[in-house]
Each structure stands twice: as C-alpha cells, then as structure tokens.
Design a protein that fits this description.
The chain folds into 6 domains: about 60 residues, Helix Hairpins (Orthogonal Bundle), CATH 1.10.287.610; about 230 residues, D-amino Acid Aminotransferase, Chain A, domain 1; about 80 residues, Beta Barrel (OB fold (Dihydrolipoamide Acetyltransferase, E2P)); about 70 residues, 5' to 3' exonuclease, C-terminal subdomain (DNA polymerase, domain 1); about 70 residues, DNA polymerase, domain 1 (Orthogonal Bundle), CATH 1.10.150.20; about 70 residues, Rossmann fold (3-Layer(aba) Sandwich). Helices cover about 35% and strands about 20% of the residues. The protein has 24 helices and 26 strands. The strands form 7 sheets. Strands 14, 15, 16, 18, 19, 21 and 22 form a 7-stranded antiparallel sheet that branches. A 5-stranded mixed sheet has the order 2-13-10-3-9. Strand 18 and strand 19 form a beta hairpin. Helix 1 packs antiparallel against helix 2, helix 12 packs across helix 13 and helix 16 packs across helix 17. The longest helix is centred in the N-terminal third of the chain and has 21 residues. It is globular, with a radius of gyration of 32 Å. The N and C termini lie far apart (about 65 Å). It binds ligand 5U1. Ligand 5U1 binds next to strand 3 and strand 8.
C-alpha cells in the first residue's frame, strides 16, 4: 500500500497534540512521560515549523502561552453567573448545624446521611476560565463576585491550565472555576532568589499568587511557579455534565484540568469531621498551603433544591483551620547571644493565639531583617506560625504605627558581657567580640560540646550547663572534666545518683572520635560532615591545626569561608589553650588510618558524568568520586566502568547503553557516597 508523507498541517497538529499530552502528564498529573530534553526537542520542532508557516499559528498552540505586549491595565468583565463565596464553620458544632440545616431543607431525617464532596481549601486566588468549543477564551479574577478583571494573558502562561481541552464531548461553553496558587516549594525558591537579588520577598504563598496574577506583563507571570486547581463549574451551554459534584470534577480532569488529588465523596457529617481531622494532621506535609476543608452536598439536584442565601450557597461550607497568621503588637525587642557570638534580635509580642498555640516571642533573625521589615517597637505586626516552624513577623501594618513607635537599635555592647558588638561588612549577623569570655557564648559552646552529635554527654542538659556556668563550677570547657561529685550532687534537683551518672557520662566521653571532637569545638561553619571531611583528608588534629587556608581548601566541601574560619579558630591562643586543656584532661581518640590508594573503594574505576545533577554540582561529584579513588573522565569508552546520568543525558547515555556499561542516576551516586561516609 502506498503511504503519503504527512502534510505540514498534519505534522504541526501532531506535534501540538503530543506536546499537549506531555504537558498534561507533567503539570497536571505530576507524572512526566518523557525526559525534559525530548519535550524541548519537540517544542523546538513545532516552533521552527510555525516560524516557517506563520499562517498556521493558532492561539491555543503550546508555543503561544507567553506572548503579546504588556497591558496598560486590566479590563473589567462581568461574570454571567456570579462567583459565590463560602460560609465558614469554625468548629464541630458549626458543622453539625450546617448538616442539620441541609437535612431540614431537603426534607430528610437526620439518620439519612447526605453525601458530601470533600476537598482542601487552597490558599490562593479564585479564578474563572471560560472555554468555548474546548479552547480557552478568557481568564478572570473573582473580583466582587459579579465583576472581575480580565487576566487572560496571565492565566495562559500557567502550564497546568490547558489552552485547549483534551478529549471531546465538552459543552460548547464551559466555565471552569478554581484556585490559582503558588506551591510551597516554588514560593520558597522564589523568595530565596528575590532576597539574593535584593528584592522584596512575598509575605506568603497567597500574596505571591495574587501579586503574580496582577502583573501587567505576562512575561513576568510566566516566570512565577503558579498552578491551578479546578473546584467547580459556572456557565455551561449546549452540553451536559454528570449529576454529582465529584463526578463533574473527574470529568474536568478527563478534559485536562488539574483537580485536587485529596478530593473524595463521604457519607454523613461524621465522615466529614474525620476527613477534616485526617487532613489537618497532614496539612504541613502537603505541597501547597490550605486554610480549611470545603464540604459540598454532592448531588447536583440536591444542590439546586438548597439554593443560595445572599452570596453563598446553602449546599457548601468551608471548615476553617485555626489561622496561621494573626495580628499583634510588638512590645519589645531583646538581643540574645549565641554560640558563635551572633547577637540576634528577638521580638517580644503581646501574646496571640496563632496556628493552634499562644505565641509571645518571634525571631527577627538579624538587623537586616529588622530594617527590611521596617519594624518598630509599638507596631502592629502580622505573625505567622506554620507547622513547627519558629514564629515569624511577616509584615508591619504601617497605617497603625503609633506616633511614639521606637526604632530598634542594635546595642553597641553585648547585653551579656559588655564587650563591643561588631557588625562585619558582608555578614548578616552582628557579633559580640567577647569570645569565650562572654558568659552567653561560653554556655552555648558547652551545650554544643556536650550535645549528642559531638561528645554525647548524657544527663547534661541546657539548664544544668547554665547552672554550672552561673555558679562558677565551669569556667572553661575543660573544667567539665574536673567536676566534683559533692558539688554536683548539691545542685538543685540533682542528688547522689544523678551526679554519679553524670560524672560517669563525662568520664565516658573522654574516649571519643576525632570528627566528633572537632565538631564539638564549635568552629564556625564546621558541621558534622565538614568535620568528617577534614579528618578524612588530614588524618590528625595536629595536621588540621597547622594547615593554611590553601591546604584547607583542598578538602572536598571546604571553600574559602570555611577554610578562613578554621584557620582563624586555630590561630587564637585562647582556643589553643582550651584544646590543650581538653587533651590534658584526657580527651583522646583512636589514631585515624587514612586509606592507602589500594584501599580506596573505587580505586581503578572510571566514571563519566552526564546530564544535569540536581543536588550536587559536577565539580562536587567529581571531587567526591576522586576522593573514593575513582578516575573521572569526560567521555564514554570501553574503559568506562560507570556512567552517572542525570536528566537531559543524551549521546553519552546512548553510547554507554550500547557498550553495556553500568548506568546509575544521581540518587544511586549519592547512596555510594553515603555508604562510604558510613563506613568511615
Ligand atoms: N476547594 C474549594 N475551594 N473553593 C472555594 N471548593 C470551593 N468552592 C468555592 C470556593 C469559593 O465556591 C463554591 C461555591 C463553588
């Protein structure tokens, strides 16, 4: 049979529907079907064909998401069907009342359970998307419910919003309603980038979504990590939809829209309350912010019978979670001194109930943050407490600033020891210059030294350290090892047995490992991993102590800043005196045997790196592999033992597969590093 090559129109159409389907799998179903590189290749093919045949470009082509000029302003649109809001329930009894009202209006007995559709209430911006003949025609904000703003150009840039619906059989006119939001991860990365570039970060993901949609230039919106989740329909013409709310959402999903994966139908109000409890426990693990659960009578006929009251339907309710943001007054700012001398401003607040607990303190991080927030004592502030995160001041209500609001000033002298407080250029933290002569730094240094990952001295908690420093039993770290039983036993809430146990634990800590000891010294920027790397490289404390910054930087993981801090630490006579004191007190460790070349686990193996690595740079991966004895080569050959392939890997991967060479991905490479670190 004779075959015809496809026409340009057919090629273009095929590329469009393939790209649309990949897009749907990636952004809507979170289940990518092809590597990014393949998507990019198809996209470029389509773009190039469209450039050659501009008359074939259509607005719903995947290449046309971002385009056009910035607007002068948004035009107003009228919602053909008003966009409603929801009544709120704040507790179980509000929910029971809602269910009772539903039963009464439907003429049902209370023992006949109503079926409710349940789903999280996303903390974003409500929008309407109008599809005509399956093609996205208009996107609009909710506005006041009757009139909103035309944000079509901006919604078109959001990858989880289909420009044309999938499948067929859609109504001629279909208005989809839902929430545009910024997932937590995207919000965090966006703010980190903004802060790095000296720009103002967003206060929360909701404001970030609102701010992003309010952009007059769609190119800016396109760069924001926004998503859209559908939760209902508005206008529907010439076509029919299923008879229950949850089935309608499943139908929208079939047409390519994203719906919430937590959506489900349950029977009766008790099951609604159970759903609420279960989701509130998982709230902090969800990848997006939610502020409650929405319950809707599932049967559309029952919804019609129930109708509306003012602007809210009688068939739906939002059961809200306790607020994660509240307003309160900043009563004072105090300064705390940490282990490394960092002088940190801490906000003392008028107690306020937020995120399920009463909050009276919040961190202000450093003076840059105080200045960025422009916060003054006496100000009304918004406090946020999400999950177990330390409460934060997110913004100041400037309109409510009292005339006598006091500017927050960094003290010139340390509030604990009186030494000068210094603000070093390029560093966010201000520091007390008192070093270990500062009581606060000494206490923190001891707490760190005895902590689990360092010397692991059981029974020596923070309170006891404070007591021992305050009553003069410990002046320097090494005094730990000359504590006397009667004096310890005489301390508040101690006694003979606890004192004995504590002294035994201290005794036991004399025999440790060099990485633990090094970490326990509390050198700035030297965490557990860096301590291990230093020991693995130099083998002894003497060698680390003598190393200059250049030699230190030869250690994997050690850059100029860490090298500088290590060098400075070992240059301070005071620190050397403490070190020698600890060793004189009997702290010791086994001699570290540096692996000889033939003991290195990857000795003689050749690795090749290709594609993108997500958690490591190429340089870091190479360094670590070399440290394990491997040779890292730039090209694949018969001599290659293993190819590490990240996303976007191309010809090297094909070649390695052809030669039957082992191929691993980044997580497998990390596992090799981890296994070696454990063996160390
Ligand atoms: N999940 C969900 N959020 N939300 C918000 N469903 C839902 N329904 C809403 C609103 C305003 O309104 C209904 C009346 C359609």
């Amino acid at each position: 049979m004779k075959t015809h090559s496809p026409t340009v129109e057919q090629q273009i159409e095929s590329l469009r529907s393939t790209l649309q389907s990949h897009n749907h799998r990636y952004y809507v179903l979170d289940d990518p079907s092809v590597p990014d590189a393949e998507y990019d290749r198809l996209f470029q093919q389509l773009k190039s064909l469209e450039q050659q045949f501009p008359e074939l470009v259509v607005p719903d082509s995947p290449t046309q998401r971002v385009g056009g000029m910035a607007l002068e302003g948004f035009s107003q649109i009228t919602h053909e069907m008003p966009m409603l809001s929801l009544d709120n329930a704040f507790n179980e009894s509000d929910m029971q009342d809602f269910d009772r009202r539903v039963h009464e209006r439907l003429g049902l007995d209370l023992d006949q359970p109503v079926v409710y559709g349940c789903e999280p209430k996303l903390d974003g911006i409500a929008v309407s998307l109008l599809y005509r003949n399956g093609i996205l025609e208009r996107g609009a904000t909710r506005g006041d419910g009757s009139t909103g703003e035309d944000i079509t150009l901006n919604v078109r840039t959001i990858p989880s919003i289909p420009l044309r619906l999938l499948g067929g059989d859609w109504p001629l006119v279909l208005e989809v309603r839902g929430e545009i939001y910024m997932p937590k991860q995207g919000f965090q990365s966006f703010n980190e980038r903004a802060l790095k570039q000296g720009e103002k970060p967003f206060v929360n993901p909701r404001n970030a979504a609102a701010g992003s949609l309010r952009q007059l230039d769609p190119k800016i919106t396109a760069r924001r990590p926004l998503e859209m989740c559908a939760y209902s329909v508005g206008l529907v013409e010439q076509g029919s939809l299923p008879e229950s709310h949850t089935e309608i959402l499943l139908q929208l999903q079939q047409w390519g829209l994203k719906i919430n994966p937590e959506m489900k139908a349950v029977e009766g109000v008790a099951a609604c309350l159970e759903y609420y409890l279960q989701l509130s426990e998982r709230r902090n693990q969800l990848p997006y912010e939610i502020d409650g659960i929405v319950f809707k009578v599932n049967d559309i006929l029952q919804q019609r019978k129930l109708g509306f009251v003012s602007r809210a339907p009688r068939w739906a309710i939002a059961h809200k979670f306790p607020a994660q943001e509240e307003m309160t007054i900043l009563e004072d700012v105090e300064f705390q001194v940490g282990r490394t001398g960092a002088v940190t401003p801490v906000a003392r607040l008028k107690p306020v109930f937020v995120g399920g607990v009463t909050v009276s303190n919040a961190t202000l991080h450093n003076m840059d943050e105080v200045e960025r927030l422009d916060v003054r004592i006496g100000d009304s502030v918004i406090i946020r407490r999400a999950g177990d995160v330390i409460p934060q001041i997110v913004s100041v209500i400037l309109e409510q600033r009292p005339v006598d609001a006091k500017i927050v000033e960094l003290p010139s002298d340390c509030p604990v020891c009186g030494a000068l407080v210094e603000r070093i250029e390029g560093e966010a933290a201000a520091r007390c210059s008192g070093g270990l002569s500062c009581g606060a730094q000494r206490k923190e240094a001891i707490k760190h030294y005895v902590s689990r990952k360092a010397m692991d001295i059981d029974g020596l908690g923070d309170k006891l350290v404070e007591l021992l420093v305050d009553n003069g039993q410990i002046k320097q770290l090494y005094d730990l090892y000359s504590l006397e039983h009667p004096k310890v036993a005489g301390l508040e809430r101690m006694g003979d047995k606890s004192a004995e146990n504590l002294l035994q634990a201290i005794e036991k800590s004399r025999f440790t490992t060099l990485p633990r000891f090094l970490y326990g010294l509390g050198i700035r920027e030297v965490g557990e991993t860096t301590a291990k790397s230093l020991v693995r490289y130099f083998g002894s404390l003497e060698a680390i102590r003598e190393a200059d910054e250049e030699q230190l930087q030869a250690v994997p993981d050690v850059g100029p800043i860490v090298a500088h801090h290590v060098r400075v630490f070992f240059q301070q006579p005071h620190n050397l005196e403490i070190l020698d004191g600890l060793i004189a007190a009997g702290v010791h460790w086994p001699v570290v045997e540096l692996p000889t070349v033939d003991q290195q686990p990857l000795n003689g193996k050749t690795y090749v790196l290709t594609g993108t690595l997500e958690t490591l740079t190429r340089g870091e991966a190479k360094e670590k592999l070399e440290q394990l004895g491997a040779k890292v080569s730039g090209s694949v050959s018969k001599k290659t033992d293993c190819l590490v392939a990240g996303p976007g890997a191309g010809s090297k991967l094909t070649k390695a597969q052809g030669l039957g060479i082992d191929v691993i991905d980044e997580p497998q490479l990390l596992k090799i590093f981890e296994d070696y670190a454990e063996a160390f």
